[in-house]
Amino acid sequence: MDWLRNRRRVNLLGFGACVALMAYALYAELVLGLEPCPLCVFQRLAVIALGLVFLVAALHHPRGRLAARLYAGALALAAGSGIAIAGQHVRLQNLPADQVPACGPGLDFMLDVFPLHEDIAMVFTGSGECAEIDWALLGLSMPAWVLLACLGLGLFGVLGNWLGASGTTDHTPAGRALP
Fold first, then answer.
1. Is 7 a catalytic residue?
2. Which residues pair with 141 in a beta bridge?
């Protein structure tokens, strides 16, 4: 648990994990040909938001408890949104066939035609395309892995920022440690 005490390292590792998740999402889309559904796009936005909070926290590198705990809260919020979106997607994928909603319009069409609040409501009610499972690893679909990743990264970031020490020792010019 000693590595959890360095906030900058925790935040850089969290940012790196989010970059890796997004790199794989782009690989799956561009190389494997898996077209993201609207809920997948929202999950990507949540992972990007989580990564940005990790990056800002790493660059800022707060030494005070209050700032670090604010970053912990922001990480919990970003990770929680990813968990909620991925959880809704997993729920849709596990509905019985007769309860799966009909396929709806694409996200680009919805954004062009409807107001933003209606777009968000339509995405979260889901559509038939969001219920399809095109990819699985160890029996879990991609949204299930995103849910687990957001849960793990959220816990990692919150613990690392809430409980972690500053991660560095401040020194005076003479080399003596400050109290």
1. no
2. 136
Indicate the pairing of strand 136-137 with strand 140-141. antiparallel
130 is catalytic: yes
Nearest to 53 by CA among 76, 87, 86, 21: 76
User: What CATH class is the domain 2-162?
Assistant: mainly alpha
Torsion (CA) 58, 63, 66, 70 in degrees, nearest 10 = 0
The token duo for 126 is 């889901």
Asked if 152 and 21 touch (Cβ cutoff 8 Å), the reply is no
Catalytic annotation present for 40: yes
One of 7, 8, 18, 44 is an active-site residue; which one?
44
Q: Out of 7, 18, 37, 150, pick the active-site residue.
A: 37
Identify the CA nearest to 67 among candidates 161, 146, 169, 132: 161
* 63 in active site: no
For the question of residue 9 being annotated catalytic, the response is: no
pTM of the model: 0.74
Residue among 43, 55, 39, 126 at smallest CA distance from 79: 43
Question: pLDDT of the chain along its 179 residues, tens only?
Answer: 555 568 888 899 999 999 999 999 999 989 988 888 888 888 999 999 999 999 998 888 777 777 788 888 999 999 999 999 999 888 887 877 676 655 555 555 566 666 666 656 665 565 556 667 787 778 888 889 999 999 999 998 888 888 765 544 433 344 455 44
